[in-house]
User: Fold this.
Amino acid sequence: MATLKVPATVPSPTDDAEQLRKAFKGWGTNERLIISILAHRTAAQRRAIRSIYAQTYGEELLKSLDDEISGDFERAVVLWTLDPAERDAQLANEVVRKWHQSNLVLIEIACARTSDELFQVRRAYQARYKRSLEEDVAAHTSGDFRKLLVPLVSAYRYEGIEVNNSLAKSEAKLLHEKISEKAYSHEELVRIISTRSKPQLIATLNQYKNEYGKTINKDLNSDPKNEYLAALRAVIRCICCPERYFEKVIRLAIKGLGTDENALTRVITTRADVDLKVIEEAYYKRNSLPLVSAVKGDTSGDYKDMLIALLGHDI
Amino acid sequence: MATLKVPATVPSPTDDAEQLRKAFKGWGTNERLIISILAHRTAAQRRAIRSIYAQTYGEELLKSLDDEISGDFERAVVLWTLDPAERDAQLANEVVRKWHQSNLVLIEIACARTSDELFQVRRAYQARYKRSLEEDVAAHTSGDFRKLLVPLVSAYRYEGIEVNNSLAKSEAKLLHEKISEKAYSHEELVRIISTRSKPQLIATLNQYKNEYGKTINKDLNSDPKNEYLAALRAVIRCICCPERYFEKVIRLAIKGLGTDENALTRVITTRADVDLKVIEEAYYKRNSLPLVSAVKGDTSGDYKDMLIALLGHDI
Assistant:
């Protein structure tokens, strides 16, 4: 369930584009107006506004936003304004160019999207960067991470709900064997988690727990400092319980003294029109604090207002 | 260039469906009529005929064909009548179910199609078999072949013509190193040939030849009996010179006493509306014999007539 709130009567894209232009003009920028429009439109509506804006004013809306606003607020508005596939392509490219083992964004994009969404990301990536996503991932990663990430970003998983129980049984056994041998990057393990359909994989992991007494992620937590194991656990969580995965990303982003604005912005802009409501519920359950209060406590100014608006609350 | 010949005035799909129904009815089947219609329609036209036929007669055209005709003739007509993506999905599934290292069909489908065509094959595969293509390939292959085939069938290569020359130089060097070390399944080698765009890969292979004096396929021919090396050479040929690859498949299918009808049918039905004319030219150049004469000499009956019609000649 999404948190995005769209008004009952939506102005025409032409009116929205005109209002945005007004928000940019004159002395200072009207940030509230920008938020009141963009944070309350669907992806298709934002696309229409961008198209009309470029036709009318001879400049890309994203360029105007870049000129008028800045910092975390700009990043939140720009990421949100992009089409979901373009946004993911940009996030993936940022990560790939300065790739670090602890970064889980590629896994998020590969595993917490539908098969068709991931494919659209691959198309958008090519259109923008003139290379394929898997080509860049393969060229910028190495070792166990490459063995895992390239098939994950290249996957086009079957999405039917059919489950083969005897296969779930035999592959649970195989996974357990490899994990017991600490062969975490064994090609059979990677094959299973990168090619099987999500319902099939969930059946396999249920079988794993029933048969061997612990969840696979417990067994993949033998060394909390091992970043490859953390990546494997993220794959499993993005596939089996994305809302709990995203809750944790937000929790860690907010926790402690500083805030990880990049992570917070990413989760809120990528999930506001998907399942942010469910993530909010998971957050409340885990932290006994409404997500909106936590966000208000940790952010400020227009950036805060943008996130609160995307969370579906009044600013 | 295609060999497919479509009449200047094409009957409506309704008329075609009616004629086909007539060809099936009564005493015996009118094979000539079947050929005269189906072998002279584009994929879109055949699709329209199938759709109208099913609506009108309450039976799939492919089912009627299966009841009325048989053997090599049936296989040629049925494969041809399928949509290209469905046909490739069927061919891939046949191969995967009884996979053998010497079989190059998966490589053909992965490397001698455009990126979008390959993606459509993956979609068609899921629609028909309720599993993903890469899932089946990964589950039914092993060792070096799996390392090569899974990324190849999962690829969505960039199709722009941009070439990075310094990258071509460095990757030619890398390929030469790995081949010199006989590390033919090294992950860097597989990465390069399975993810780079075709123009980029061709530039790399030109660089390889300029720098090291021999084509990569000469260097990959150190052991003619090694089937993995044969697979690698097929990848290179399907990407760099598909017409020469297909010429060779046809040549070997026809050569000697028996005929490999499966291979002959596959190449003619998959290439008749793509580049069979160019393959014909390559065949003539290599064998000093027109392909149509070779096919006439090696086949007979309705099967022969179907192939000749697809080759664009009168039967």
Remarks:
- The interface with chain A takes residues 119, 122-123, 126, 130-132, 134-135, 138-139, 146-147, 150-151, 154-160, 162, 187, 191, 195-197 of chain B (CB under 8 Å).
- The radius of gyration of chain B is 21 Å.
- Residues 242-310 of chain B form a domain with the Annexin V; domain 1 fold (CATH 1.10.220.10).
